[in-house]
Amino acid sequence: MERRRLFALLASASILAAGPTLAAPKLPMGELPQLPPIRREAQITYVDRTGQVIGVRGGRFAPPVDIARLPAHVTAAFVSIEDRRFWEHEGFDPRGIARAVVVAATDGRASQGASTITQQLARNLYLSQDRTIERKATELVYAIQLERTYSKKQILGLYLSRVYFGSGAYGLEAAAQRYFNKPAAKLTIMESAMLAGVLKSPVNYHPVEEADANRARARLVLDAMVDTGAITPAQRAQAWATTPKVWKTAPNGAAQYFLDWVDADARKIVGNPKQDLVIETTLDAAFERSAETAARRGAATAPQLQAAVVAMDGAGRVRAMVGGTDHAKAPYNRAASAKRQAGSAWKPFVYLTALEQGWSPDNPVVDEAVTIANWSPQNYDEGFQGQISLERAVASSANTVAARLADMVGRQNVAMTARRLGVQSAVNTDPAMALGTSLVTPLEMTTAYAVFANGGSKVQPYGIERVRTAGGKVIYQRAPHVWTPVVANPALSNMNRMLRSVITSGTGTRAAVPGQDVAGKTGTTSDYKDAWFCGYTGGLAACTWLGRDDNAPMGRITGGGAPAVMWQSVMSAGVKRLPVQAIPAGRPAPCAAARRHHSGQRPHPARRPRGRRPRGLTSLSL
After folding, report:
1. Active-site residue list
2. Residues 509-519, mean pLDDT to the nearest whole number
């Protein structure tokens, strides 16, 4: 291979000696081939609610870089190290080729390259990487044609949009976002040198995996920039003294779960686009990173754990979605696709059904052993509290009370309540359904809790606000949200009261957010296979989940432990990023007579004439 490369260099020198009009192999003398068309598939750029880029889908290559919008030191870094006579030559550098030939002849091997930026571009655009004499000759001819067809700035812009920087980053803009979480227009001198140094070998000079080698290479780039007059020695010293933050993982890595989820909707809207598009999403990138951090910390509490987080505002806008601890290693979206048992996080559907049938948080119930259809639920601590209030039953997550109550109010009615609040998965109606045995996703559970967060209106989760062309023409705008009530008072206000007590004095005390009005519910499934915390404040709901992909037990991890801590961290970040307020009270409660007339609800048993046993309490002690 080394000998072949040496022959290629010698052949190239011979072509140049004969003049640039010499034809490539198999071409008539004196003619140059027309340039093939430059092909580039359209890209969809996704941005968050603030306009920050969170991902690109579609074609591999970005549009040509607009050189005029870059600081001079950015382009100078690449020109100085890759092709310092770029602005003077006509597509090839005779002196560079001659030097490479001499070195090759002396060393017996090709130790120096001789390709200009224009030649590299010609190869990237039209040719393979094969090291043959024919390919090298054709590359030179195409380089000459590129110089005749495009300006230097256009050639450099095309080049910087195509070169590979490792970690899946093609082009300067993608590399700047991947390693420094900033647009290319904001790169410093040192950051520019570090990226320019990668091109020699994205593997050997990777900014993360080969940090020392990359920094040493960046020093050579800085020296070259001084030699070419791009920067002064003082600027070199100042740049070398800095240590830019390099992101070990892609800063928008967690957002890829959200993009996987929203991309299906995007394709329904735009189909197979023929031009570059920008999709403005509901995601908050900074909030998303906070959620990712919380998920990773939660998953670190036991081996082989995975985590999921969904945060949604009261109108259904998904503000954060973390589907796992590392999208690059495990792209399966557990937030939107994994159906798991919700455990006691399901109980609000049971209690809301009861509240809508006339129960109140102060009604006495009995936490004691019970058997329903040959099934005997147990409490977490395997003990019983005796007579307590309905509110206390929720706060302490008494399984026996929830199971009895679901049996009383009708498990089919509980299923209808869950569906009304946004659960779309199949809901079983066996006696254990009250304890959350139906399989649901974190996205579904967050949707349901968002109804409490917005004052009782229906929620439809979504992630796309607007689609526009790169030039700014809007081709899609989501219609304004229509507020459709699905939960009324007094049931809603009573539900809020009961779920507040879970955090103030129940199983979810670790989820408390100082200074915020929050409510929620813990959830732990049998054998500790799933652990949840779902909750809300005014205008924002979130659910956190921990579990293993193989559905194996996690050990004694409960919803009031790591998931509650995760939730507290997520919501603490969310209330700083999004407009939130106290939990809304919802619509005023209608008078009792009107409520019974319109809803068909029967009055609470306590309000019935004394001496009459409420229907359904024959075998239950409540």
Report:
1. 82, 344
2. 98
